[in-house]
UniProtKB/TrEMBL annotation:
It catalyses: adenosine 5'-phosphosulfate + ATP = 3'-phosphoadenylyl sulfate + ADP + H(+). It comes from the Eukaryota. Its EC number is 2.7.1.25. Belongs to the APS kinase family. Residues 40-190 form the APS kinase domain. One of its GO terms (cellular component) is cytoplasm. InterPro entries: APS, APS_kinase_dom, P-loop_NTPase. It holds the Pfam family APS_kinase. This is Adenylyl-sulfate kinase. GO terms for molecular function: adenylylsulfate kinase activity; ATP binding. The lineage of its organism: Eukaryota, Viridiplantae, Streptophyta, Embryophyta, Tracheophyta. Catalyzes the synthesis of activated sulfate. Gene3D superfamilies: P-loop containing nucleotide triphosphate hydrolases. It is an enzyme of class 2 (transferase).
């Protein structure tokens, strides 16, 4: 069994199958990169049903941070399934592996000093909690886009709910596959008096949190 030290090494040692691997520490660390960027690396993890507005929030937030000269990067579930995760479908096992991989990538981005915005349905609480456990010092910020299924289904921009209702897609989240809402999220975005906040209001809610917690300064 190889010995490991340093950030993230414990998880690799616990989960890995390879022997004789060693953690190599580099002289420039997370704190140095954060000072350079004048921000703190973190993961903003947006979870919610298909059509709840995850990608819209991710992009609006990314643009807002960019306009404030903060370095952010969006990891969108749909997009990653075109590359890194193209071998995965939507079984419970594949979704778990999808979230695990994105959690690991998000952790690297945060370690690089970036504000990493991950937007995935991520329907299982345990998988999201595993990602949270990868990140240090409260730097995993879970954002629950709590839109009712009826709202998401009425939007249906890709026509997927229609196909799911017609039985042409099996195992569609919210229809015949589960979604487990967070119990301990940092931010919840929901309807106020029957209407959804605008994209910029949703992003504003997240920016206020990041400001308040000091992520937008070094
Ligand atoms: N069966 C099933 N269930 C849910 N979603 C489905 C399914 N099949 C395809 N799609 C499309 O895949 C997008 C979700 O990908 P994710 O990687 O975010 O899903 S997951 O986190 O692994 O559950 C999702 O994108 P969003 O609508 O942006 O959420 C859908 O476009
Ligand atoms: N805050 C909002 N108010 C009104 N419509 C929205 C809002 N956010 C997203 N939408 C619309 O809802 C649909 C689904 O949004 P999207 O961001 O693609 O959701 P998801 O990524 O969760 O599937 C899109 O047509 C989008 O324009």
């Amino acid at each position: 069994m190889g010995s490991t030290t340093g950030a993230g090494a414990g998880a690799a040692a616990a989960a890995g199958t390879a022997n004789n691997i060693f953690w190599h520490e580099c002289p420039v660390g997370r704190a140095d990169r954060q000072r350079l960027l004048k921000q703190k690396g973190c993961v903003v993890w947006i979870t919610g049903l298909s059509g709840s507005g995850k990608s819209t929030l991710a992009c609006t937030l990314g643009r807002e941070l960019h306009s404030r000269r903060k370095l952010a990067y969006v990891l969108d579930g749909d997009n990653l399934r075109h590359g890194l995760n193209k071998d995965l479908a939507f079984s419970a096992q594949d979704r778990t592996e999808n979230i695990r991989r994105v959690g690991e990538v998000a952790k690297l981005f945060a370690d690089a000093g970036l504000i990493c915005i991950a937007s995935l349905i991520s329907p299982y609480r345990r998988d999201r909690d595993s990602c949270r456990a990868l990140l240090p010092d409260a730097s995993f910020i879970e954002v629950f886009l709590n839109m009712p299924l009826e709202v998401c289904e009425s939007r249906d921009p890709k026509g997927l709910y229609k196909l799911a209702r017609a039985g042409k897609i099996k195992g569609f989240t919210g229809i015949d596959d589960p979604y487990e809402p967070p119990l301990n999220c940092e931010i919840e975005i929901k309807q106020e008096e029957g209407s959804c906040p605008s994209p910029s209001a949703m992003a504003g809610q997240v920016v206020s949190y990041l400001e308040e917690k000091g992520f937008l300064e070094d």
